[in-house]
Amino acid sequence: MASLPAHLASAPSDLPPNACPLPRSGQLAGLLTSIRDKNTNRGDFIFYSDRIIRLLVEEGLNHLPVVEKSLDYKGVGFEGKICGVSIMRAGESMEAGLRECCRAVRIGKILIQRDEETAQAKLFYAKLPDDIANRYCLLLDPMLATGGSAIKAIEVLIDHGVPQERIIFLNLVSCPEGLQAMYDVYPQVKIVTAWVDEKLNEQKYIVPGLGDFGDRYFTSN
Predict the structure, then answer these.
(1) Catalytic residue flag (residue 89)
(2) In the Enzyme Commission scheme, what number(s) does this protein have (predicted)?
């Protein structure tokens, strides 16, 4: 198997224990390279992003507990029901990938925006399954920068009765600062991320990042 360049070969070694980056491979690095390119058109951006999302969802499902299940042979099944919860609007891009892996999965939505006066994440809207407290939740948002929106969304889920250990946060690109911020508040929430970037800059943008994911995914160019 061909080796990756040294600067791409491995994720940072000092990540919080609840962070689970995907194994780095040539395929994954190539997909990320394509969506980072500012010249990638919207159709290609969606195609390559969807491929990464599918890898993320499949890895996220690997972290759900299973129990023995006997049919014609002894196998396993998921321990409980699951649902997806997308942080609008960028997180909605990940819903199709979840549905491709889990037919008829229930999906909730949370809208969180930054309050211009306090600079804090503020909840504007939440629509969740009535029985969400009894489900495992896959929280969907492609970018993890400061962690403010994800932390607020997890707070909403916990307020609706979902234990930390039943929440798995799926995202495409994260950074060490955001991962640490989430661990400091919710250490039992597992984070499955496709790639951990270098850092946040002074403007709180991920470096190298890939721009505004929601705009690039949903807006024609």
Answers:
(1) no
(2) 2.4.2.9
Token representation of residue 193: 């991320």
Per-residue model confidence as pLDDT tens digits over 75-113: 665 666 899 999 998 999 999 999 999 888 999 999 998
| 114: annotated active-site residue | yes
Question: Which residue of the set 37, 115, 184, 215 is catalytic?
Answer: 215
Candidate list 114, 115, 131, 184, residue with the active-site label: 114
pTM attached to this predicted model: 0.90
